[in-house]
């Protein structure tokens, strides 16, 4: 079971619609740790760390997001593994 961390940037109508809350909920449900943070340009940054299959599952979910959001684009980069406890909303 390989462990990975990815940094994802989600753009679209993703602020003010509970995107970070739902991302944290999905992440914890999938056993992924990290954070979701609003950025000044209106996008959301997500750090997701854990089992590669679970992280990829969260990334797939991020492509759609919660019901009230609209995801226009998603970019991702693998980053150096780091142990993170829980899933923080920043």
Automatic annotation (TrEMBL):
Quote the catalytic residue positions.
20, 38
Please report the stretch or stretches of sequence annotated as the Acylphosphatase-like domain. 5-90
Name the reaction it catalyses: an acyl phosphate + H2O = a carboxylate + phosphate + H(+)
Q: What is this protein called?
A: Acylphosphatase
List, in alphabetical order, the Gene Ontology terms for molecular function in this entry.
acylphosphatase activity
InterPro entries on file: Acylphosphatase, Acylphosphatase-like_dom, Acylphosphatase-like_dom_sf, Acylphosphatase_CS
The family classification in the record reads:
Belongs to the acylphosphatase family.
One Pfam family in the UniProt entry: Acylphosphatase
What is the residue range of the signal peptide feature?
Answer: none
PROSITE patterns, sorted: ACYLPHOSPHATASE_1 (PS00150), ACYLPHOSPHATASE_2 (PS00151), ACYLPHOSPHATASE_3 (PS51160)
Q: What class of enzyme is it?
A: hydrolase
State if Hydrolase is listed as a keyword.
yes
Which keywords does UniProt give here? Hydrolase
Under NCBIfam families, the record lists:
PRK14426.1
Record EC number: 3.6.1.7
Q: Tell me the domain of life.
A: Bacteria
Transmembrane helix: present as a keyword of the record? no
């Amino acid at each position: 079971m390989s462990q990975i961390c990815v940094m994802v940037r989600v753009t679209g109508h993703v602020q003010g619609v509970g995107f970070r809350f739902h991302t944290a909920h999905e992440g914890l449900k999938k056993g992924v740790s990290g954070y979701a943070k609003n950025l000044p340009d209106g996008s959301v940054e997500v750090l997701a760390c854990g089992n590669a299959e679970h992280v990829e599952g969260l990334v797939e979910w991020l492509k759609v997001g919660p019901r009230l959001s609209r995801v226009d684009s998603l970019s991702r980069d693998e980053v150096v593994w780091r142990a993170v406890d829980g899933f923080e909303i920043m």
